[in-house]
Target: DYW domain-containing protein
Amino acid sequence: MALPGASARFHEYEAAITACIERRALREGRQVHARMITARYRPAVFLGTRLVTMYVRCGALDDARNVLDRMPERSVVSWTTMISGYSQTERHVEALDLFIKMRRAGCIPNEYTLATVLTSCPGPQSIYQGKQVHSLLVKTNFESHMFVGSSLLDMYAKSENIQEARRVFDMLPERDVVSCTAIISGYAQKGLDEEALDLFRQLYSEGMQCNHVTFTSLVTALSGLASLDYGKQVHALILRKELPFFVALQNSLIDMYSKCGKLLYSRRVFDNMLERSVVSWNAMLMGYGRHGLGHEVISLFKDLHKEVKPDSVTLLAVLSGCSHGGLVDEGLDIFDTAVKEQSALLHTGHYGCVIDLLGRSGRLEKALNLIENMPFESTPSIWGSLLGACRVHANVHVGELVAQKLLEMEPENAGNYVILSNIYAAAGMWKDVFKVRKLMLEKTVTKEPGQSWIILDKVIHTFHSSERFHPSKKDINAKIKEIFVDIKAAGFVPDLSCVLHDVDDEQKERMLLGHSEKLAITFGLMNTPPGLTIRVMKNLRICVDCHNFAKFVSKVYEREISLRDKNRFHLLTHGNCTCGDYW
DNA sequence: GTAGGGTTAG
Model:
């Protein structure tokens, strides 16, 4: 039996430390700790653990670790508390090291430890450790524990092993909000947006619980799909649920509407927010940029400073907005200021935007100069944007230099050869065109397959190049030929240089007509009433010929066409596009 | 006493 005095002191210290934990009062916590040392009071495991918790919660991890290391005896709770401290501050290596130390010390991890340690295996690079933990928890029978299982499935989802994540999810004896959200967001993060939506619909019909996190993930998936109907429906559901205000959810709505082509709705969400974070502003800026509205980007950027501090993404959004909106001088000004005042925020991406800007305005030598003198290593995408500019401005000299660099960096990318051969073709240098084509056939590999989709009546219709499986294939083929005749009569000339294969011209025309975005546009034209905007999405950048095709369709059939490619929106009306033919 | 899921960009 302990002395009454010791017991009283225990209670006093315990109460004091608990108060510090609740109030996150680090200074006071240190004082209590110091008092204990002066009084030569040696805390046993429980109070020692409380001290660790206090330091962890107050963000003083190194102090916490000091206490842990000096404890004469440690419990599973003391170890777990410390590991969790590391996990939550993304000190994953230390978290895993400590977990190993704990096991070497003979301590048996419990469900708390395992759920925690799995969060310290983030991404594909730590899949090896993650699998080791997995095998441990199979042995200890924790695989189907609710918390451990959802942590495990999230680990697999984040390491891009969505099938394994799904297997774990399907094995859980029950499902709760967190496990459901984790698997849905797993699909969304991997870009499997349709799967995310399907799973949500299934689980929702089975009565799953949802909260703001679930909706945040779901809305992200809908942004990827560009499904305005579903987006509006889910937004309405969110409003009906009367959830408390959550910035991240509102931010995802801003992004979703802008990616669905409804900037006004984005702005409405943005304006109605009780509180905005820098992410809210960034999402809105990106939205304007994606739609080519450079002036709105600049004006919003000015307003932003009154409310939040711009970050690296902000600058990227503004520069890319200026580039897409054609505001060359404004963009260069903003960049110059950033170099002087916020250079710590700048990285390759920002330089890429500026090089794009310079290229767009035809200042190709300057752009080349900036690449060579920027404080970062150049990337293929930067050289690629410059090569595109060389095509637009028909500059063979710089084009050759850039292409040489680019073909060394990524010889397997067919797109680069195509652009270079286009540059030569425009200059009438046919021998060189031929050389490049030959080189391309020898070196390139097949790229990511292009696909386009259109959503009609909440059904997603996906098209691949030279679609062979769509049920309406025959009708689409007939219609596309009809369109071809109509737009040719209006002056459309197929751009055969967009075809990568070495075949005769007639076959080239046929291949061009098989491009997925043309199929989707045609399908839209066939299945929507006159006057309705045709909204088509594509997973890659749109090719010059398809862009031209869409322009002519918008003119000849008097239809507005909204095309969202990988990077931005094209709104085509009366034969013109909001991108100004530069993308 | 200790635990799992979320937003812009890349």
